[in-house]
Amino acid sequence: MSAEPAGERRQALGGWTPWPPELADLYRRAGYWRGETFGDLLRERAARHPDRIALVGDDRRLSYGELDQRADRLAAGLLRLGIQPGDRVVVQLPNLAAFFEVCFALFRLGALPVLALPAHRRAEITYFCEHTEAVAYVIPDRDGGFDYRELARQVRREARTLKHVLVAGEPGEYTALSSLLEGPVELPEPAAGDVAFFQLSGGSTGVPKLIPRTHDDYLYSVRASAEICALDAGSVYLAVLPVAHNFTLSSPGSLGTLYAGGRVVLSRRPSPDEAFRWIEREQVTMTALVPPLASVWLEAARTTRHDLSSLRVLQVGGAKLSSEVARRVRPTLGCTLQQVFGMAEGLVNYTRLDDPDAVTLETQGRPISPHDEIRVVDDEDRDVEGGQVGHLLTRGPYTIRGYYKADAHNAKAFTRDGFYRTGDLVRRTPSGHLIVEGRAKDQINRGGEKIAAEEVENHVLAHPAVRDAALVAMPDVHLGERSCAFLVPRGQPPPGREINAFLRERGVAPYKVPDRIEWLETLPTTSVGKVDKKALRQWIADRLAQGARG
Ligand code: OOB
After folding, report:
1. Reduced 3-state DSSP string for 285-346
2. Does the residue 15 lie in any domain?
3. Is the CB of 343 within 6 Å of ligand 1?
4. Ligand 1 centre from 344 Cα, in Å?
5. Is 457 part of a structural domain of the chain?
6. What percent of the chain has a predicted confidence (pLDDT) above 90?
7. What is the pLDDT of residue 8?
8. Ligand 1 centroid to 267 CA: how many Å?
């Protein structure tokens, strides 16, 4: 345990904003921050029930004892390779047991995983490597027909601090993770108040933002989430969305399940075909989906030959779930629906398992913690009347106080007294439940995948034929939203596919490539001269509605 800051090896990491001492004290006194690290957690569980299965996936079954030992041995190998406490390591692994071996090894070592998503490509990965000065990059050999070693070759050309590429699987010219398992060595103990790893923000600005999470704050959200979701040793959690995402990782996700001594099952694909097979085979009790996937599953469940009766809870979050789809969960799957409205920056809201239907079907839940401070405000940061729609601001024991190395942006994204401006528009019911009514941030929520408009606009503007660009959301029956780029050409507009090929060429993640392109002579502006995105959203929505009618 690392309860006492004295005598610990404290991290020298700069560029992040800790909580003010009086709040940190409060969170410790309340018993939220317990001085426990992720390394401690695994050690303790492995000592208690070494033979119990912790992870199942891709022909592997790892017990708690094995996971613990392999994390130690891999940490030793990483140290020998030259990876030091405090070093940053970009981890881009799909739903494989290796994800947990690598993360726990890095936690033990006090090195910091930067959790990239499998869909990220050269532009994003290079940026993460450069911004965090990462020394290593961990990838699978191939996944979903894509060769990550080829991506690593491209990243290595640009990311100067990168010394090692480590591969789960066939390493090619790189180092196989399996070759790094060595006899365990004595390791310095990281402090629980230190940054443990980086999550990625959905973002709304030009470059992706990194979210520093400490052992203390993240473990609190994991523990409290596991309690809210009633996880125990009999729980079997199926990870279908990427394991690196906050929802799948900690709400309560894989880490919550490991905390509770349950079993995590890793599905490589989110399709009902693969997931239903896992549910039947491993007697899965809980899983988490984004709304479009929930609709696909509900459809498939009507005719499946798989036995899904072990499922107790289906969580849906990441984007707004319509009450029509919500209503179909229990009759179709025979399990309880739990809505989850969370963010990688911290705050997570859940409907509780014993909430009445009206709450579960119509709201996005309420915060984890009595110490999650919630404000709903107008454009001038004044609290709105109860029940009115406003901007959601929050602060609390597991919500960050600033992004990593982003001072200028932090001044806008946080209030002076440390509330995070979520960019979400919500209404709060008298019972304290939140209903998401919209979004003020410049982001597209493409079926749970977040696209920062400005980031994509900057990439598009690098094309010589584009003078001006605005990316907006357009309604979509399947994904909720897709992206539409309004572009102003220099001279003759090129075909849209040329723009999209250009973006892929620049190494932009596929989900960020515009779903539709519209050429305009100029972009409409508001009275203060800003691009009128509201008008653009309205225009494309009307156009689509006409199309649907015609
Ligand atoms: C989760 O995390 P992120 O960081 O990918 O995205 C956060 C944003 C929120 O600010 C909100 O705009 C949107 O995603 N969102 C929802 C929602 N859940 C997230 N909007 C409406 N209804 C919901 N239920 O998406 C995330 C993190 C942890 C747990 C669950 C989701």
Report:
1. CEEEECHHHHHHHHHHHCCCCCCCCCCCEEEEECCCCCHHHHHHHHHHHCCEEEEEEEECCE
2. no
3. yes
4. 8
5. yes
6. 95
7. 56
8. 21
SS3 265: strand
- d(CA 342, CA 349) in angstroms, rounded, equals 6
pLDDT in tens, 242-297: 999 999 999 999 999 999 999 999 999 999 999 999 999 999 999 999 999 999 99
So what's the pLDDT on residue 188? 85
Is residue 151 assigned to a domain?
A: yes
181 domain residue, yes or no: yes
Distance between Cα 246 and ligand 1 center (Å): 9
**Per-residue tokens: 20:** 């003010």
396, 387, 388, 441: which is closest to 420 by C-alpha?
396
Answer left, alpha or beta for residue 35, where phi above 0 means left and psi between -120 and 50 means alpha.
Answer: left
- Measured from the Cα of 201, ligand 1's closest atom is 4
User: How many Å apart are CA 225 and CA 203, to the nearest integer?
Assistant: 24
Residue pair 409/400 in contact (Cβ under 8 Å)? The answer is no
Residue nearest to atom 9 of ligand 1 (CA): 343
254 lines ligand 1 (CB under 6 A): no
Please report the pLDDT score of residue 104 as a whole number. Answer: 98
Is the CB–ligand 1 distance for residue 202 below 6 Å?
Answer: yes
Query: Does 7 score more than 50 pLDDT?
Result: no
Q: What pLDDT, on the 0 to 100 scale, is given for residue 9?
A: 64
3-state helix, strand, coil in the chain (%, to 5): 35, 25, 40
Looking at the whole model, is its pTM more than 0.90? Answer: yes
* Percent with pLDDT over 70 in the chain: 98
| Domain limit, last residue, from 167, 191, 221 | 221
Mean pLDDT of 479-504: 97
Q: Is the peptide bond before 252 cis (omega within 30 degrees of 0)?
A: yes
Which atom of ligand 1 is nearest to 448's Cα?
Answer: 25
Closest alpha carbon to 198 in 344, 398, 35, 2: 344
Domain boundary among 221, 238, 256: 221
CATH number for 484:
3.30.300.30
Among the listed residues 533, 541, 471, the one whose alpha carbon sits nearest the alpha carbon of residue 500: 471
- What is the tens place of the pLDDT at every residue in 496-508? 999 999 999 999 9
Q: Which domain holds residue 478?
A: 443-549
CA-to-CA separations, 38 to 12, 89, 103, 171, 184, in angstroms, rounded: 19, 17, 9, 28, 17
From ligand 1's centre to the CA of 197, what distance in Å? 19
Q: To which residue do tokens 């980031």 refer? A: 455
Q: What is the pLDDT of residue 539?
A: 98
Could you give the number of structural domains in the chain? 2
CATH number at residue 91: 3.40.50.980
Distance CA 200, CA 124 (A): 11
- On the question of pLDDT at 10 being above 80, the answer is no
Please name the residues in contact with 381: beta carbons below 8 A apart, sequence gap of 6 or more: 393, 415
